[in-house]
Structure formats: structure tokens, C-alpha cells
Amino acid sequence: MAAKQFKTESKRILNLMIHSIYTHKEIFLRELISNASDAIDKLYYKALTDGNTGLNRDDFVIRLIPDKEKGTLTITDNGCGMTKDELETNLGTIAKSGSLNFKQDMQKKEDIEIIGQFGVGFYSAFMVSEHVTVASRAYGSDEAWKWESSGAEGYTVEPCEKAEYGTEIVLKLKPDTDDEKYSQFLDTYRLKSLVKKYSDYIRYPIKMDVEKSRPKEGSKDEYETYTENETLNSMVPLWRKNKNEITEEQYNQFYKDKFSDYENPAKTIHMYAEGVSTFHALMYIPAHAPFNFYTRDYEKGLQLYSNGVLIMDKCADLIPDYFSFVRGLVDSQDLSLNISREMLQHDRQLKLIAERLEKKIRSELETMLKNKREDYEKFFKNFGLQLKYGIYQDYGMHKDVLKDLLLFYSSTEKKMVTLKEYAGRMKESQKYIYYACGDSVDRVDKLPQTEAVKDHGCEILYMTDPVDEFAVSMLAKYGDKEFKSVSADDLGLETEEEKKEAAKKVEENKDMLAFLKDSLKGKVSNVILSQKLKTHPVCLSTNGAISMEMEKVLNSMPNAEKEKVKAQRVLEINASHPIFQKLCDLYRDDRDKLKQYASLLYTQALLIEGVPIEDPVEFSNQVCGLMIQ
Ligand code: ADP
User: What is the pTM of this model?
Assistant: First the structure.
């Protein structure tokens, strides 16, 4: 029979497996057992919801059969089995929904990481086998089919005999080499410890014939060997065990297996609730954002079990969007098995559970922030953006839940700080919580607009994510203190006297300012004498709700209107800077030149803001014109 080819990407992965230098080859067993358990889950679910199958929970079993003579390890299950088509599609291609992403990621990451990250399941059998045979009979079908492959060359599928439904996988192990003893996977003691290590919580018995010895009857010192069909796993799902029975290693391993991550989680949250709703939850905060986290492809949600039976893989309603990075599962006896997705959304129990989970996640994050600052900062680097989106989402409905979880870079502390810390340090006379926006901490630090606020000894929070200012405008206040951008026109810093002084100066120069405003018509809504600038000549500020940063963000959105959003720009001039005197002189002597100067100053202010300038060529010509004078 002619061998069929694997799909290209499957072939690539297969090759990775065959030539793997991955040190944990033993994980193949965990992968195959977990597939067997999934297959039983499917059938058991059918049995529970159908009622006519006559199947009982006790009927299900996974078996391991090592055969030292033949050099084979066989793994069987009596789960749902596979039809001929399923054998071909499931084993001939990578069944992962993320296969495309996988390909992209392939270029970037080390092969070894890929194996860990994607947990490529069935193919891991080829790390230890030279030949793999899968015989399967789908439940309810009277045909059985055999899939066989020796690796990358391809595979064959042909009919076979199989008395029972389910799947039987026979691995012909590779011959031992100096570095690698594949025969260890025929040793019952070794197999037993691997099951304990990786698959203890599988909910169906994993059985194997184990040779044991006992004293011979009627004799004191003679022993006889006998075979016992032993159940190797304890079958209690990890999440149903007591916390003190579980090691950190077990929690981490469970996470990595189940959620295909190569790194231990940053935080494990294990809870049991009783009362209005009774449930177990095991949740994890990953140590890094999944590669597709900030894309549309990322699907949030927790696995949902009803009394130990998986009813949904990603139940989105259990987790709010702003905590969408949390992976994990919930197991509750209060949920009906037959519940549909649509009904779940309105399920009262589910809502109660979701509320409890949200509270728990939040309090765990707060504790981390309080006691493990470094860990929290790392967490925030990964997922802080999501929290900020959360503030902005749903018209600010969740801002109270999230506001104390935010971190911003502080101008005075030179590190990330919370709003609470900022507020706690504020001087009594300070009216506002000041913030400044820009692309990076460095850039914001140099903004001329920050001068006066810094001069007054006030702390400034630096907002470097596009969403920051939107989140802050949604927050509006922290406690009773309003947020104020350093680019806003009135920073509330001057004394009455200073204000009077400033007003006088404006009055004296009002004609020139009006002239400047007129010459920058269509570009700025006003030209004023700045109260913010100390040493710098000019800066831009804005009038109204849209700031320069918001303008940038809104216009860069994919669906931005053709008619670009424009902030109402105000050109601020520093009256104590020598340039001001020059402007006054020109107003008196040479108004054409003053027009040019106005345009130059405006362009400089744009450059400082990091906004593309309108006509770079003209700007360059103007500067050159000045240079040759
Ligand atoms: P994954 O299990 O992550 O989907 P695998 O490569 O391990 O990826 O398996 C591919 C598919 O093959 C599974 O999704 C399942 O549909 C099918 N499969 C694997 N092993 C079995 C089995 N023992 N019984 C029934 N179906 C199986």
C-alpha cells in the first residue's frame, strides 16, 4: 500500500520529534495518556447526556502493556475511538487550531521551546519510537482501521480487526544507544513512576500488570512472584486535592501540561468555595504573555467542569476581559451537564462563580503588589496594558476594581508607582495629580511642559502607552484629586500674585499675541504666554478634551476617519526666554519676519511633541535662511 504524505507542517514537527534533542523524552507517555483520557471523556460525556448507551463510569480504563521481548509499549483506551477519516485528519495533520501561528513562531523560537510550548501531543511518540501503529474503532461503528508510520516518509491506513471500540497504540521503541536508554520505557517500575509524576490526576484508572512477590503459602522464607493488575494513578484531579497535599512542582507541571506553556506560571491560585455556589477553581497567571495575547486570535476563558466532567474548554463568561490572561479551570457540582453555551451565559450559578473568581484574582494581585513588588512589576509589564484597557472599557464601569492595580513611572521616584503611593506623597497644597504623555520615559522626561511642575517639586506620572491617557480620562479622579496633564492650560501652580503678574504681561502683549495667532491660522487655536516653561522657548498644549497624544492614537487606529481628529493646539511661548524679546522687536520692526518666526516656533513645538511636522522641506529652508543671515 502506497504511503500517504504528511501535511508539510506536520512533517516538520515530526522531524523535530524524531531528531529531538529534547531531554524530556519521557513526556510522550503523558501525551498519549492524556489523549486516551480525552477520548474517554468524550464517550463518557455522551453516556451521561444520552442515557441509552448503557455505559458506566467504571467501564472505562486505560492500559499500559510493556513487552520486553518485542520491544513494544502498548497504550489502549476504550474511549470514543476514531473513524478512518478521523485517523487521517487527526494524525496526518497537526490538529492544533493554532497551526498557522505555530508556523510563524517557528522562525523565532528555539525548536526545543516549541515542543514544550505547543505540547505537540501524539507526535511525541516518535521521540522514542521507530514505528508507531494506531488501531482504532470508533464507538458505534463496526469497522476498525489501522494507521501506521515509521516517521517522516508518510503513513498508511488500512482496515484491521479490533474487537472493542477505542484505540490501541503500539510503539516499537528505538534501539538503545549510549546516550539514550529507550528500553527504560518497558520497565514497569519506571512506567509506574512516570504515571505518578505526570498523570496521577487522570480521572480514569491507568492499569498495568505489575509483577510482585509475596511469601509462599505455608513457608516463611520462600517467596513467589505473581502478577497484579495494578491501578497506577490516584485519579483524584489535582484541583480537588487539598492544597497541602500538592507540591509547587505538581501545580507547575499541571499548568505546563494543560495549557501548553514552557515556563512555570507566575502565580497559582487554588480555591474552594462553599455556600451559595460550591466549586473548585485552579487558576494561573502566566509568567509571560502568550504570543497572540494582544491580538484578536487570543481566546479568553477557563475550562469548565461539572463534577469532574469537562463541559466547555474555554468558558469566556467566567473571566472578565481585563483578567483575560488568567488560565485555568473551574469544577462545580451546581452546573448541569447538558447546559448549552447560550444558556450558560444566563446561568445564575455561573455568574456567582465568576464574581467570586474576579474578587479572588483581584485580591491575589493586590497581595502580590503588597508583598512581592518585583513579581508584580513583572506581571504588570506583561499584562498591565490589559488592566488599563479594563479601566477604559464599558464606560469605566470597572475602574474601581482596577485603579489600585495600576503602575506608572514616576518622575521623582524613577520607578513604577501606584496611584495610592502618589496620592500619599502629595503635598497638601498640590491640587492635581500630574501626568505627562509621550512615547517613552526618556522622551517624556525631556518634555518642556514638565518644567514648571517639576520646579514646584511635584511628582509627575509618565504615560507611555497609547491607552494611558484614555484610561486616565476615564478615571478622572483618584480619591478627591483630579488628574491633570502637564500640557493642560491651567496647572494650578501659580499664586494669586503670579497670576496677576501674568495677566498684566498678557495685556501688554495682547496685540502681538493676536498677530501671532492670526499668522498661524488653521494651525493653532491660540498663542499664549506660558506659565509652564522655565528654560525652554516654546511648547504645545491643548484646549478641550482631545490631547496631542489622543490625537496621535485616534488617527493611528485602523478605522480612523478620513477626516483626521485634531486636537485644539495652543502654542505657548516662554516670556522669560530671550526669544520673546526678539519677537517683540520684530513685531515692532519687521512683521513679515515675525510671521516666519511664528511658523518656525510652531514647527519646533511639533517636533518636541513627536508629531510629524506639516512641511519638513519648508522648515528646512527656513532654518537655512536663518543660518545664512
Ligand atoms: P491534541 O490532543 O492536542 O489535539 P494530538 O496530536 O495529541 O493533539 O492528537 C490529535 C487528535 O487525534 C486529537 O485531538 C484527537 O482527536 C485524536 N486522538 C489522539 N489520540 C486519540 C485517542 N487515543 N482516541 C481518540 N482520538 C485520539
Answer: 0.72
